[in-house]
Amino acid sequence: MDSYDVPESTPSASSRPEDYFVGATPLQKRLESIRKHTSFIPTPPRRKVPQCSQLQEDVDPQKVAFLLHKQWTLYSLTPLYKFSYSNLKEYSRLLNAFIVAEKQKGLAVEVGEDFNIKVIFSTLLGMKGTQRDPEAFLVQILSKSQLPSENREGKVLWTGWFCCIFGDSLLETVSEDFTCLPLFLANGAESNTAIIGTWFQKTFDCYFSPLTINAFNLSWMAAMWTACKVDHYVATTEFLWSVPCSPQSLDISYAIHPEDAKALWDSIHKTPGEVTQEEVDLFMDCLYSHFHRHFKIHLSATRLVRVSTSVASAHTDGKIKILCHKYLIGVLAYLTELAVFQIE
């Protein structure tokens, strides 16, 4: 598996969801076995430009549209023990009861003043890189309609989804009792994310860990997403750097017209369909040089914390927003790679 320098999260005494998630389970023994049998290699000098997977033809367009243009918080997730796709309806009932019980105990579960909610588990057919990848699935908390005559669902209070895109390195080392969906994305109140994570941990002997994105991987994302051909640009290509200083940090935003960013990339790019480490470095160096020429500021002395393009935007704290359905699988494949490395 490719090696990345992904910072580890240090648990602290607070109510953040990561404090509920990070913790050893018996599955650690299995993961230790995975580490022993997985060959680690340095960061690859080249990667494929994200492509539209043929398997996306099976995806429900309405569900894909629902996943786009939302800000998701990223987590890595160890394999689920004894998870069964045939039991999704039962899981919905059990998780619903668990949330209500936690609310009744007075915990901060944001489902409103009453317990009139509904939990729904559903599959995301076709949301995979290869046929071997497990089926992705979606979990939603919805408010029920208060009118007895109406059979419609209310608003979506929280959403989370689990997926594995090109997760061969992990799939090859885990027994049939485990379902590998290493990438978890959540949208909604953090207190709900924490409670739902607790239920998954208790039910499937797994654990969650916040998935942050360091500057190195943000640079790769910037290059790969700039290399993608989009039908029309929906966002400016933008970079955000953080400058540590007292008494508070300073942020530097650098916006580029997407066509100019693509022209710069095309002038650097040599091998069709691939992105190399050398090209990523040169792409970022050109941006640094251009910025210094105009503003006399050395961006190389700062820290890249956010990248935004017409394909997607990502922040170092583990926030992602996917904008282009054409490259959904490609974006998720890279995030899966980071998640797999983190749990290994």
UniProtKB/TrEMBL annotation:
Top-level taxon: Eukaryota
Primary site of residence: nucleus
Keyword Nucleus annotated: yes
A GO term from the CC aspect: inner kinetochore
Pfam families linked: CENP-L
Cell location: Chromosome, Centromere; Nucleus
Keywords for the protein's UniProt record, in alphabetical order: Centromere, Chromosome, Nucleus
Keyword Nucleus recorded: yes
PANTHER family reported for this sequence: CENTROMERE PROTEIN L
Family: Belongs to the CENP-L/IML3 family.
Protein name: Centromere protein L
